[in-house]
């Protein structure tokens, strides 16, 4: 996915022609704001899901992130280096989530939870 993002970034640099109807995509990427504005050290899982969806469905709309349009529209400074590195950051986040789910499987938790008796009066 990193190579695809590099290609998109190159296309954005070569041409300024991308669809002007990308405003909705910027709002879809709202879960990523904390990460690309340096307010968070890692992207959220919601951010990664939305980012992956945008890359698959409307990748040229990411030009608005890289050319400063998103920063102007949203009124916040966006760290374009972080935006460009989002695929790698998301991969790390997904790997950590996978490790956590493997370390503490829900079936193991169910085996240790006490049985809850039915309320009084219910057989």
Automatic annotation (TrEMBL):
Keyword set, alphabetical order:
Disulfide bond, Glycoprotein, Signal
**UniProt keyword annotation of Signal present:** yes
Q: Where is the Bifunctional inhibitor/plant lipid transfer protein/seed storage helical domain?
A: 6-95
Entries under CDD domains matching the protein: AAI_LTSS
Return the annotated region ranges for Disordered: 90-123
Q: Does the keyword Signal apply?
A: yes
Pfam families, per the entry: LTP_2
Q: Which residues form the signal peptide?
A: 1-16
Q: Where is the composition biased (Acidic residues)?
A: 90-100
Domain of life where this protein originates: Eukaryota
Q: Which family is annotated? A: Belongs to the plant LTP family.
Please state what the protein is called: Protease inhibitor seed storage LTP family protein
Q: Which species is the source of this protein?
A: Musa troglodytarum (fe'i banana)
Provide the organism lineage as a comma list. Answer: Eukaryota, Viridiplantae, Streptophyta, Embryophyta, Tracheophyta
């Amino acid at each position: 996915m990193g190579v695809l993002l590099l290609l998109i970034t190159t296309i954005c640099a070569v041409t300024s022609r991308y669809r002007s109807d990308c405003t909705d995509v910027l709002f879809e990427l709202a879960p990523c704001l904390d990460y690309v504005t340096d307010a968070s050290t890692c992207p959220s899982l919601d951010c990664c899901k939305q980012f992956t969806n945008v890359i698959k469905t409307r990748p040229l709309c990411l030009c608005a992130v890289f050319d400063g349009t998103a920063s102007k529209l949203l009124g916040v400074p966006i760290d374009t280096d972080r935006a460009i590195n989002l695929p790698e950051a998301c991969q790390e986040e997904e790997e950590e989530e996978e490790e956590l789910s493997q370390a503490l499987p829900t079936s193991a938790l169910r085996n240790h939870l006490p049985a809850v008796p039915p309320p009084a009066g219910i057989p």
